[in-house]
Structure formats: C-alpha cells, structure tokens
Design brief:
The chain is mostly beta strands. Among the domains are: about 25-70, no CATH class; about 290-410, Lipocalin (Beta Barrel). The protein contains 6 helices and 22 strands. The chain has helices spanning about 35, 45-50, 55-70, 145-155, 290-295, 440-450, and strands at about 85, 90-95, 105-110, 115-120, 125, 135, 140, 165, 170-175, 185-190, 195-200, 265-270, 275-280, 285, 300-315, 320-330, 340-345, 350-360, 365-370, 380-385, 390-400, 400-410. The strands form 6 sheets. A 5-stranded antiparallel β-sheet has the order 6-5-4-1-7. A 5-stranded antiparallel β-sheet has the order 13-12-11-8-14. Strand 19 and strand 20 (about 380-385) form a beta hairpin. The radius of gyration is 44 Å and the shape is extended. The model is unreliable at about 1-5 (pLDDT under 50).
Length: about 450
Amino acid sequence: MWRMLPSFNDPPANRPEPTRFLLCEVPKAGCRSAGLRRLRFVDLPHLRDAARARRRIGHWVSIVPLLLASCTTPAPPPAPPTGIAYAGPATLNLRKELGARSSIVGSVKHGDRLDVLETRRRFVKVRTAGGAEGWADLNLLLSEQQMSDLRELKESAAKLPSQGMATVYEPLNIHAEPFRQSPSFFQIPEGGMVDVIGHRVSPHDPPPAPKPVSTRRAQAPKKKKKADAFPFPLPAPPPIPPDAVLSRAETPAPQAPAAPLPPPDDWALVRTRTGDVGWALGRMLVMAIPDEVAQYAEGHRIAAYLSLGEVNDNEKNQTKQNWLWATASFHQRPYEFDSFRVFVFSVKRHRYETAYIERNVKGYYPVETVSLPGDEEKAFSLVLEDKDGQLKRCTYAFSGYRVRLVSQEPYQTPPPLPEVRPVTSFAPSAPPVPASSSWGDRFHSWRKKWLAR
C-alpha cells in the first residue's frame, strides 16, 4: 500500500518527520502499475511548486509589448515646408493624389494657412494645421503677398461710393483679379446683393504669369552606354554626278489664317455686405432697379443708378422714387456708360416719364448725388469726357421735371486701386531688419529705464 507524501501547505507542527520512501520499479512499456496510476500531482511537492511558476506569465505579458515597442522603427519627422500658402476659394478640397478623381483627404476654408511641401507643374502639395497632407491646384492658392494685397484692396474700396446694387440669377464667383483663372475666394448666392463700385475691361486670355519654381526632387541622370567603335574605317562618299539636280524650287505651303482672338471681358468690382471686395463678370450681374423703370432700358446694359428722392402718390396711397440711371449700349468699352437719363414719377398719370436724357457721351464712375450750398434742389454729378478728351465733373440740379447743368470743372483721376499681383513664389517673406542703434542711443535708453524705476 502506498503512503501519502507530506504536503508543504501543512503547518510545520503538523508535518511528519522526513521519511524515505522506496517506490516500486517502473514497469516496462505496455505494463502499468495500478499504484502508479493512483499517484496524484498534489503528492509530488517539488513538481507542484515548480508549476506555480505559471503565475509569472503575467509579468512576461506586460514586458513583451514594451520590448516590441522598443524594436519598432519610429515614425519619420514631417517634411519641412518650403513656403506658405493660403486657401483661395470659400471651400478648398485637398486630394490624396494628382488628379480630380483622387480621394479627398481634407478641406480648408478661405484664408486658412497651409504649408507648401512640393510643387509639380500647376499642382502644389500642402499640409494643413491639423497635419493632413494633400494636393491642390496652384490657381486656387494665394500667397502671402496676395493676401496682403486683398487686405489693402478691401481698405481702399471701403471708401468708394456705390454705383447701385446688383443681383445674380445663379451663384457667381468673385475673383481676386479680373480674369477667369484667378483664385475665387467668395461666391454670390442666387438672389444675393452686392454693391458695384468699379469697372474694368480685361483680355479673355491674359498672358500667363510666372509660376513658382518646381520643388520636385531631381533624379540622377542615367548613364549613357558608349557606342562600340567601328573596327574598320568608313570609305569616302562617292562624288556628286555633274548632271544631278541639287535643289528644286519649292512653293511655300499656304498658311492657315490665324484664329481670331476672343473678345475681352467686362469685369465689375463688387463689395459684399461683409466688406469683402473682388471682381465678378459684368455680364452676369443685373442691376436691382425696379422693373417698371428697367423696362425702358431699350436693350442696353444699366451701368449705374441712384435715387433722386421720393414722390408720394396720395390717390393710390403709394410712394415712388425718382431715378437717375446710366446705360451702356456696347460692351468691352474703356468707359462705363454712353448715355444717362432721369426718370420722374408722374402723380397725374401714375407712371414713370423721362425728364432728361443725354446720349453719345463717354462717362466714367463715380455717379453720385451731391448737395448744392444754399439750394434745396436735388443734385447729382457725373464724370464726362469732352471733345478734347479732357475729363470734366458735371453737376446737374434736379427739381420736378426740370434738370439743368449747374457747374463743369476739371476732374482729377484718383490714384488706382491696389492690384492683387499674380503669385510668383510661396516663399515666406523675410522678417524686417532691425534698425542698428549706436552706443549713445543704447546708453540713453538704459538711463531712462534706470531712472524710471
């Protein structure tokens, strides 16, 4: 009969004295002893204590991730930017790869700062403030210089008088420069209202501006294999026969006629209600003058309009406005309008009638109302070109159905508005150089600081 081995979990007082045991001989393969089958794992103290080492697996589980993390390669640092750009449109999508069908990795708003990483032809790889990297069209980005020009244009245009409110029948983009490829940073919604404050005629396809230098890494040129030298010298060419025809008279090929240049575009400088200023296509703008007056435009484009006062129609209990408008019969002209007309509302006939009209003139902005000193009459002024090509500021007084010329004085053209120059580089502008100060200036500044204590 087998005796149970002492357990090390028993208290020392209950443990029996160590005793030697003689186990039976292990039978051969295929012959097992019944007593050996009854031997339990608990009865073998040394093997049981060694099995407790399985609890150390938790320590290894916590150490293995640290070892794996130390063996992984750290992420490469972000590429240093080569320049600074700003988003031009109201919303600019960044693409993962070159191409319009590539997936979008992020979007930015107008004026958001972007780090320029790489330039390939007309595409620029940029990085947002959140770390997203993607490709954008060069024509949709603004440089630091252009953002500064836009701020100066906004400040200068805030003082210009409005030539009338205009609306659009469909969304219309506002550009930074008066040509179609210029970045569009705002969009007039359908039915939105803007102030028209300027006009310009620009070519349909302006000359391309210099593009930023490509920053793509240049690949090493491939080595050309040397051609094997011919082992034998080449024979001399045969002489030309005396009766050979050396040349033939060739008739020049007829040249195709040059394609006609597209007509220039009329651009209007507009100002939004928020104060943003930009250029919009003039043919897409519609002056928001009442239809009962606009129907007399005779197919001409209304370039400017303003109110000359109110008229009360007591019979129909309504209030109407007297209007001055200026129209242009042709597009793409260097001047703004070629005729102007004064409309008054007739209380007797309950309709608008023409009080004054003048045609075949060359008029320029601004068209605005003025006040006559010591006179209660309404007055307005226009800038017209006389027969000698000189600009005159003509002031007209208006009272009832009577319009008369009051004064005519030379007009001095104001300085041009700041231009938004084309982008040539996205390199950041150099910081201003501090002015060098002499030792005497430093001593005086130190003395003032010391005495001020």
